[in-house]
Write a structure and sequence with these properties.
By secondary structure, this protein is an alpha/beta fold. The chain contains ten helices and eleven strands. Strands 2-7-6-5-4-3 form a six-stranded mixed beta sheet, with helices on both faces. Strand 4, helix 4 and strand 5 form a beta-alpha-beta unit.
Length: 371
């Protein structure tokens, strides 16, 4: 098995450990609460140390925002985090009017809550209010294009100092440099960075008002009630700590794997690499093999033990216009596209084997299509 669908989900690095309810007053509850507190510190550090290693001493408040553990809200994943950020911000600021701004090819976890708020007339999608909430991804989930989140946010805030910036960091957390100086909220997902499914979080800069969507015991600073999944959160934090400490090494490793896979463009005719810019994550490679529909190629490769995708798993079974089409790619390119996505734990041998099998499979399918 060669698993090149790591943008959809990754395998956990560590096994789960047993913990008790962190709200319990006894010794075991206190131990769990301490583990949760340590995990919060690790995540805050990963959001910070990922941008300017080797020492936090080189980071000043004038050039980089240093997140604090108290600004981290643990959730069930990136989707809940984005919903909490968008709908929570709209509800907290509705009286003064909210404008929601995003591009049409962002991840569904951004677009769906925006649509939910717009359909109820809680907000508008034109920048007419000072309370603009601008949402975009750190790394595009389809093509791997990297947004310079700090520069983009700085430019937005020059035009509107009151604008609030939400960055979907699902594909960027523990993979790319992070500069939060002009960012207000940053979401992340555990299972995208070798943590367990059902974990994630939202960093909210102090002073940004959001309304909780879940009510009960007041956990997570009263922003997300419900007993925390301490074992999974601890596992996510351990994975984040490991990956963020090896950020440059991991990027270099997956870049070499991606370079091996890019040889398919040289060895086959009518192959396109789909990106919007030259600044692209080494973790994602979106390719179109003309003459072969992406869906057919994904299934054919799966039968041979190569696991890739056609893009966001959230959309894989839905008959919707693809993100590539919305980006302006020609229909035939969009229909022929598949996405390879890599992990630091993939090997060069896997890439070489995947290249060989993909080459043979594309040739075979093209011959069948011509008949």
């Amino acid at each position: 098995m060669i698993y090149f669908d790591n943008a959809a989900t990754t395998s956990p690095i560590n096994s789960l450990k047993a913990f008790y309810n962190p709200s319990s007053p006894h010794a075991l509850g206190i131990k769990a609460e301490r583990a949760l507190r340590d995990a919060r510190k690790i995540i805050a550090s990963a959001l910070c140390s990922a941008n300017k290693p080797p020492s936090l001493q080189t980071i000043t408040a004038n050039t980089h925002y240093i997140p604090t553990p108290e600004e981290i809200i643990f959730t069930s994943g990136g989707t809940e985090s984005n919903n909490l950020a968008i709908i929570g911000y709209v509800l907290a600021n509705q009286k003064s009017g909210v404008s929601l701004v995003s591009s049409p090819y962002e991840h569904p976890s951004l677009l769906a809550p925006i649509r939910f708020a717009l359909e109820r007339d809680w907000a508008v999608n034109e920048p007419v209010y000072a309370n603009n909430l601008v949402s975009f991804s750190h790394v595009n989930h389809e093509t791997g294009d990297i947004n310079d989140i700090n520069s983009i946010s700085s430019e937005i805030k020059k035009n509107n100092p009151h604008a609030v910036i939400l960055v979907d960091g699902a594909q960027g957390f523990c993979k790319e440099d992070i500069d939060l100086h002009n960012i207000d909220m940053y979401s992340f997902s555990g299972h995208k960075c070798h943590g367990p499914s059902g974990t994630g979080g939202l960093w909210v800069k102090k002073g940004i008002r959001i309304t909780p969507l879940q009510h009960g015991g007041g956990q997570e600073g009263n922003m997300r009630s419900g007993t925390e999944n301490v074992p999974a959160i601890v596992q996510m934090a351990e994975a984040a700590e490991s990956l963020s400490q090896r950020l440059a090494y991991n990027r270099n490793h997956v870049a070499k794997i991606k370079a091996l896979m890019l040889s398919l463009q040289s060895n086959l005719t009518d192959v396109y690499v789909n990106t919007l810019s030259d600044n692209v994550s080494p973790y994602i490679l979106n390719m179109s093999f003309m003459g072969v529909k992406g869906e057919i190629l994904v299934h054919a490769l799966s039968e041979k033990g190569i696991y890739v995708s056609m893009g966001a798993a959230c959309n894989s079974r839905k008959l919707k216009q693809s993100a590539l089409s919305l980006m302006g790619f020609k229909q035939e390119i969009a229909q022929s596209a598949i996405r390879f996505s890599f992990s630091p734990f993939n090997t060069f041998e896997e890439a070489e084997k995947a290249c060989e099998i993909t080459y043979d499979t594309v040739k075979q399918l093209r011959n069948v299509m011509r008949k």
